[in-house]
Design a protein that fits this description.
- With about 450 residues, the chain is mainly alpha-helical.
- It is about 65% helix and about 0% strand.
- It has 23 helices and no strands.
- Helix 7 packs antiparallel against helix 11.
- It starts with a helix and ends in a 9-residue tail after the last helix.
Length: about 450
């Protein structure tokens, strides 16, 4: 196996060709937005650049409401770099794909830098929706070469370590050689060898068991370059001369790290989720396999019963389960709602980027405008209580009763109520302007356009 990995390392120079084959610009853009998404939310995700621009704009507004104008300016600078990265250049046809990709990644790298600077300038602690990433990237979410490279870059961002500092701490005898290899990955995007991956992870301050999780992620990603040896069920990290390190859950410092350890535990033991469900049920701890899948995929934090079923399904003896229970109990009070809030926000951003908000310009009557307003609330995914809270956070005073009254009576809302709807739903300035112009047009419409359907309680 070690020889296999060395063969993979020798093919690392083929990353550029692989990217070009799959569409260089699109791949580079999605990978770089993944890194920027981690800087914003603490969770890597491939999001449209325009959606990230909107989030950066809302972060800037929130920072201004806190009175931290330097942080708001930094968020605005990050947004300008993202907008510059996705703007089509007039000379793009004459540029090579490599040059266009390099300019795109450079602009998004500057956006990451300004985003991290903005969080550093915010007062501590700062409330929602402002939060800097508290945990490092999760290697369990990596399944392809580009994602590995981008998450390693995000890991370096999170740690603040420089390539030279990592090289000097990991290889004092020949730091320049290791620094060159690190820069080839972090700056040029070359697929890293196992040694470079381990040095980078250790240099960023992660414990030994976490470095093994990153080696397992590197092992999965490297299979893209060995199609004739690809296996649908990788059984764990690359073996080394000393064997894989033991998984110590007591060393986990965050829920994300504990989730990564549980994911690696399943990879090492090798069962499917259906098999885990069957073994746990036979041991008297039956749970649905989807709950085991959610824990293994790091989309849910385990309850005590699910943790017992997970450990039973992975074959962990009862005498060795207490450290896992203690780690879960220790980390549960510190979970808060940040992880759930991040997931909900990412889901909402993805849905909004695919489904644009309703267009009020198609409304020719008051009744049609009311229907568009109902559709806007449904598009936002917020309850009226949450919508009113978001509007108040945006500086627009409103009550839940006022919003409910406008929706129930289906008339033309007052300008202040419409302002609350559009601000609470998170519309951009351009979209808000469309709603104001539509309302102004309908306010002076002829009487037949103002006719409303019979009042009906929707309670």
């Amino acid at each position: 196996m070690i020889g296999d990995m060395d063969a993979e390392s020798s093919q690392s120079t083929h990353v550029t060709e692989a990217r070009a084959t799959c569409g260089a610009s699109a791949t580079a853009g999605s990978a770089s937005t993944r890194r920027l998404a981690f800087a914003l939310f603490g969770a890597p995700a491939e999001l449209p650049a325009q959606a990230l621009c909107d989030v950066l704009g809302r972060r800037a507004e929130a920072a201004r409401r806190l009175g931290c104008h330097p942080a708001a300016d930094a968020f605005d600078a990050a947004r300008q770099h993202v907008a510059l990265a996705v703007r089509p250049a007039p000379t793009a046809a004459a540029e090579s794909d490599a040059q266009a990709r390099g300019e795109l990644e450079q602009s998004l790298a500057w956006a990451v830098l300004h985003t991290r600077r903005a969080y550093a300038l915010l007062p501590q602690p700062c409330g929602e929706p402002l939060r800097a990433p508290q945990s490092p990237p999760d290697p369990a979410l990596i399944d392809e070469p580009v994602a590995l490279v981008e998450d390693l870059r995000a890991l370096q961002d999170w740690s603040g370590a420089s390539a030279r500092g990592i090289a000097e701490s990991e290889r004092p005898s020949r730091p320049s050689a290791l620094e060159a290899e690190l820069l080839a990955t972090l700056r040029d995007g070359r697929f890293p060898s196992a040694a470079v991956t381990e040095a980078l992870v250790r240099g960023c301050g992660l414990p030994e068991q976490q470095s093994r999780a990153w080696l397992a992620a590197r092992h999965r990603a490297a299979r893209a370059y060995l199609p004739d040896r690809r296996s649908p069920d990788p059984r764990g990290p690359q073996p080394t001369a000393g064997g894989p390190a033991a998984l110590d859950p007591l060393g986990a410092e965050s829920p994300a790290q504990l989730s990564a350890l549980l994911s690696e535990l399943r990879q090492r033991s090798g069962p499917s989720y259906r098999e885990m469900q069957r073994v746990a049920k036979e041991a008297g701890c039956g749970v649905d396999w989807t709950r085991l899948w959610a824990v293994g995929g790091r989309s849910a934090f385990p309850s005590p019963r699910v943790l017992e079923a997970f450990l039973t399904g992975c074959g962990v003896p009862p005498a060795e389960r207490e450290p896992w229970r203690l780690a879960r109990k220790r980390l549960t009070p510190h979970r808060g709602t940040a992880a759930n809030t991040v997931g909900e926000e990412l889901d909402l951003i993805r849905r909004r980027s695919l489904d644009p908000p309703p267009d009020p310009r198609t409304a020719d009557t008051w009744a049609q405008f009311a229907e568009a307003l109902h559709a806007l609330v449904a598009w936002s995914g917020l309850s009226l209580t949450e919508l009113a809270g978001a509007a108040i956070d945006a500086g627009v005073p409103v009550t839940v009763d006022a919003l409910r009254h406008a929706l129930i009576h289906r008339g033309l809302p007052t300008p202040s109520t419409l302002h609350a709807f559009t601000a609470g739903c998170g519309l951009s300035d351009a979209d808000r302007h469309l709603w104001y112009m539509a309302r102004t047009r309908l306010a002076s419409a002829p009487p037949q356009a103002r006719r409303l359907p019979p009042f009906r309680w929707r309670g």
